[in-house]
Amino acid sequence: MGLENVKHVVLVLSGKGGVGKSSVTLQLALSLTQQGHNVGILDIDLTGPSIPRLLNLEDKKVTQAPGGWLPVKVHDARDGEAETSNGHEAPLPVTPSRRGSLHALSLAFLLPSRSSAVIWRGPKKTAMIRQFVSDVLWPPNTDYLLIDTPPGTSDEHIAIVEELHKLAADVQPQPTRNGNALSLESDTGPKLSGAVVVTTPQAISTADVRKELNFCVKTQIRVLGVIENMAGYMCPCCGEISNVFSKGGGEVMARECNVPFLGSVPIDTGFGALVEGVKEEQNAVNGTQPTNGEASRKSTELVERYKECGLCPIFSDFASRIDQKVRDATTS
């Protein structure tokens, strides 16, 4: 059975294209790993995969192993270390924070080049998604699998939901013995925990996203929350947010559709520079070099550099609330 190493599956959906589903998926994944969770990203936008580009891993290829494909490693898990002020003083009483691992899989990792076009009809898309679900060997103890989807409510969406519901139905409660009593343990396989729906504030976007919320109702997918992306512009100099376009459309839509609203995200050019590696290029031009090995590691790992991004606190809050919703649903 596929996804046996995955505890929770979360879809990232939107009926509208260009609202930033892939960047939201990536930032949620980075925030969850910073909070100690092992995370996987599955990119099922077959005709326009963006995750490899955002990760700056377009040159990577999927490895074939006995039993399936191995996803591409973005970064390893790492145990936190208590800080010390100098070599003569005792370590400060700080609880070490564990960083989770991150792996990703996309059709782009299987294509011969970045410019290769995927010209497939619906049945071939469905077959590819089924293979993604059944033939990928995610690392053991993967806490979250975030699935980045294409716009709309078409073949890819129907295929992934059908496969996930089928997996959930195939998992039968296993009897376990507690003393002389027998009980049924049902948490033995991957669980479709819900969906995060992304929109922009404009009415033309929220009109399409309402259809996605209707799709969730008809396919019995719990909506964990709505994120209003591109709500304002964050000044790179002072951090002030200006409502260049509009703001609040996503919150109004969520309230009218009776689904949770997670919050608004402004446009931050710093995030674009982060994923494009502009900061490293500027350091090279200015002749700035890291002072030690730790600084060097932080300058090359996206998860560490993301801590300096202005959007990091926002998505950290989103990740914490999503994790809490998932855990509450699991224990209820």
From TrEMBL:
The places in or outside the cell where this protein is found are: Cytoplasm
Q: What's in the keyword line of the UniProt record? A: 4Fe-4S, Aminoacyl-tRNA synthetase, ATP-binding, Cytoplasm, Iron, Iron-sulfur, Ligase, Metal-binding, Nucleotide-binding
- Could you tell me which CDD domains the record lists for this protein? Mrp_NBP35
Q: GO:BP terms for this protein?
A: iron-sulfur cluster assembly
Q: Which parts of the sequence bind [4Fe-4S] cluster?
A: C235, C238
Q: Check the record and name the InterPro entries matching this protein.
A: Mrp/NBP35_ATP-bd (IPR019591), NUBP2/Cfd1_eukaryotes (IPR028600), P-loop_NTPase (IPR027417), YlxH/NBP35 (IPR033756)
Q: Name one GO cellular component term.
A: cytosol
Name one molecular function that GO assigns to this entry. metal ion binding
Q: Does the keyword Cytoplasm apply?
A: yes
Q: Where does ATP bind?
A: G15, K16, G17, G18, V19, G20, K21, S22
PANTHER family in UniProt: CYTOSOLIC FE-S CLUSTER ASSEMBLY FACTOR NUBP2 (PTHR23264:SF19), NUCLEOTIDE-BINDING PROTEIN NBP35 YEAST -RELATED (PTHR23264)
Sum up the protein's function in the record's words: Component of the cytosolic iron-sulfur (Fe/S) protein assembly (CIA) machinery. Required for maturation of extramitochondrial Fe-S proteins. The NBP35-CFD1 heterotetramer forms a Fe-S scaffold complex, mediating the de novo assembly of an Fe-S cluster and its transfer to target apoproteins.
Family to which this protein belongs: Belongs to the Mrp/NBP35 ATP-binding proteins family. NUBP2/CFD1 subfamily.
The name on file for this protein is Methionyl-tRNA synthetase
Which organism was this protein described from? Capronia coronata CBS 617.96
